[in-house]
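tool=predict chain=A
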Amino acid sequence: MKILVVGNGAREHAIVHALASESSAGGAPHELHAAPGNPGMARQATLHAVDAVDGAAVATLAADLGADLVVVGPEAPLVAGVADAVRDAGVPVFGPSAEAARLEGSKAFAKEVMAAANVPTAMARVCTTVDEVADALDAFGAPHVVKDDGLAAGKGVVVTSDRAEALAHAEAALAARGADGVVVVEEYLDGPEVSLFCLCDGTTVVPMVPAQDFKRVADDDAGPNTGGMGAYTPLDWAPQGLVGEVVDRIAQPTVDEMARRGTPFSGVLYVGLALTSRGTRVVEFNARFGDPEIQAVLTRLDTPLSGVMLAAARGELAEQPPLHWSDDAVVNVVVASHGYPQGPRSGDAITGIDDAEGLADVHVLHAGTALADDGTLVSAGGRVLSVVGRGADLAAARAASYAGVARIGLADSHHRTDIALKAERGEVAVP
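tool=predict ok
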């Protein structure tokens, strides 16, 4: 197949890596393209200097290439309608329409859909003024959960017991969007969080395997929220039947409700969950694969990803055989640049990737990287690399991933040292 992947982060590199691995496993090689891509993806795909949020440009590129499938990776192009432009050009596309992507683009809209579909989630208030926020904070009590209504690259949420901090975050979010400012204040959900990606074609829902990510910047969940500092799968501590429960009570009712509204959801429905003392609750929906979780999840997928995504794009998921998964454990550790997430530094040389990938069961995915004028690989963002380790169990996968991290050179970089550690020790419990 000729496949165009839209985006330039580690999520998109993970997709390209999975597609390229199908060829190395003995199948006919795909012709892979990426727009705009990154230096790591350039090893496996032809890069095109096209703006990922320019729907017309992406559709033109897809048509010129004669693409059999376009995969739109990040949320911003989806919310901007890039998938719509590609569909209008007659090219199969994996990713929801702009209207359907509102499940991620607007927290308030997602709450409305969840209410209509009777999906279990946190109680919430939609606020447009600081006074409304203050009332909601007092009504729900601490810990406080405040979410920017729109896209914020995974950093639009504050969870804090400090009322002043929560109020300040809400005030900044409202001010940043002017007259359109909206924030959502929610009750706090206890219990561990789980990410479950569900492949959808507007009607049928096919779940992947659950994963858990780590949002705080530092060990022991200290410091500010980030886009994600690492992830792992499987979750041996998760209740039996969790995936079936999520499909039956959450994902399928949501997809059905979106179809009823005339905006069918096709692509990935990312269900962020909290396994609380009162049962499973939705923390948030996203309209794409999550980064850093998908880097781990796709490493375990034995079913060819290309066929599944094409089936979703064509509305043919119901005709597909069940997904097959490796029993291995996978751990993804994110290497971040100096100053991330507050003020990441760019331009630092990166070394050791080939050494890391020389280790058994380790591969490295690029996120915030670029090539300097002299050809040197340098940092170009906050989260720079994902170092993915695989093993027979979490201990082996953690050892592989951190051995890879140890071979990476990036001045003043930082990473968490406790990704999947509590799970390895059997210390994760559902209340």
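Residues 130 and 171 are 6 Å apart (CA to CA). The longest helix spans residues 242-260.
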